[in-house]
Amino acid sequence: MRLFMGFLVVLVIVAGVAMLTRPGEAAFDAMLKEAVQQKIATTDIDSQGDDVIGTVALIGCKLQPTDCVAILRDMLDVTVKDHTLYTSYAVKGLKRETTCTGAFTKIWCQRPVMGD
Predict the structure, then answer these.
(1) 102 neighbors 23 (Cβ within 8 angstroms)
(2) Is the CB of residue 100 less than 8 Å from the CB of residue 88?
(3) H/E element, 91
(4) What's the CA gap between 11 and 53, in Å, rounded?
(5) How many CB atoms lie within 10 A of CB 65?
(6) Which pLDDT tens digit goes with each residue over 25-74?
(7) Per-residue pLDDT tens for 92-110?
(8) What whole-number distance in Å separates Cα of residue 56 and Cα of residue 53?
(9) Cα(41)–Cα(116) distance, integer angstroms
(10) pTM listed for this prediction
(11) Which of 74, 77, 58 is nearest to 115 (CA)?
(12) Taking a C-beta distance cutoff of 8 angstroms, is the pair 41, 63 a contact?
């Protein structure tokens, strides 16, 4: 009986921590910003090949990364659903679609939101 009560107490504590630390839309935006900045920093301008528009966009993003993040965020349709213990995000746009889950201050996505 003590073991069951101990397990129940631990379960309630973990559920309480999950509720208090589930990330919201601001955390998703911060994760997106980090992903975009990482992609900008690690992509060479020459890697765009014959894609002139992609090359110009990459140059613009390297010059103004904050503006680039804002523009890319506006191009994404993000649906946020708050659940009791976690948050789910449905992300569509930029020729990609993925779902993400947030819990315990972290966000995990099935596919990367930016780049492969």
Answers:
(1) yes
(2) yes
(3) strand 87-93
(4) 52
(5) 15
(6) 999 999 988 888 888 888 777 765 656 777 777 788 888 888 888 888 88
(7) 987 889 999 999 999 999 9
(8) 5
(9) 15
(10) 0.75
(11) 58
(12) no
Helix (H, G, I), strand (E, B) or coil at 29: helix
- Which phi and psi angles does 55 have, rounded to 5°? -65, -45
Own/partner contacts of 92-96, CB < 8 Å, gap of 24 or more, are: none
Backbone torsions φ then ψ of 79, nearest 5 degrees: -105, 120
Q: Tell me the residue length of the chain.
A: 116
Residues 6+ apart with CB under 8 A from 55: 45, 48
| Tokens found for residue 26 | 């601001």
Query: Which of 101, 64, 98, 66 has its CA nearest to residue 114?
Result: 98
